[in-house]
Amino acid sequence: MKDIRGFLIDLDGVLYVGGKAIKGAQESIDLLKDRKYAFRFVSNTTRTCRNTIAGQLSSLGFDIPVEYIFTPPLAAVAWLKNAGKHRCYLLTTGDVYRDFEHEGFCNPGTIIDFVIIGDAGDRLTYDNLNTAFRHVMNGAEMIALEKDRYWMAPGGLSLSAGPFVQALEFATGKTATIVGKPSKTFFDLALQDMGLRADQAAMIGDDILTDIGGALSIGMQGILVRTGKYRKDAVVNTGVKPSRVIDSIAQLRDIL
Known about the structure:
Elements: E1 6-9, E2 16-17, E3 20-21, H1 25-34, E4 38-42, H2 50-59, E5 69-70, H3 72-83, E6 88-91, H4 97-101, E7 114-117, H5 126-137, E8 141-144, E9 150-153, E10 156-159, H6 162-172, E11 177-178, H7 184-194, E12 201-205, H8 208-217, E13 221-225, H9 232-238, E14 244-246
Parallel strand pairs: 1-4, 1-12, 4-5, 6-7, 7-8, 8-11, 12-13, 13-14
Antiparallel strand pairs: 2-3, 9-10
Helix pairs in contact: 5-6
């Protein structure tokens, strides 16, 4: 791929699906190393903290440094630091809260500055959503760690955070700031870490909107894989035209 010096690579649906590594994925990462390409991993995963993700990847046979992994909580922490505020209501699940606690954020009190929403799974109850609603109506801003519609869980396609973020936007009349893909802010964090401009990088992902559409909108190339949440009808219906389409990341060698 002419003029491409680095890659941003999604995790779930690209390197692995349903807890199983994609055949040939690690070999493709090794190829990027051998050919001196820069690369980082950008995931909209909001159920797991960065260190846990690194451990899970290692258990699947991947050799990926933790500092190469970029997730929406890291972008949210950067946003909070810039705002100079730390009181937030965190609507997530799993151990993703550790990324916030590590930086001393999200110590809730009577006054909440930010409602931060991710893929909260079974924690997306009426009571929790209503608590978030009330905080926003009382003046808190909303940060959406991601706004994906769905993801490929081990048991099949499952709702992600997007439908619930949109419900709160509808109810409050306010718009959430998206800090995960497809926001330019999120992509820029990883691009800056590689020391590359958008036109020098390509995004490899399985989501036609957040991965490919987001990458193309800021001047990156977008490589769509036919694994994970890929659906041919979704590609046709969005009108987004990927730079390349490959069966899986194992085929990356064929287009370099």
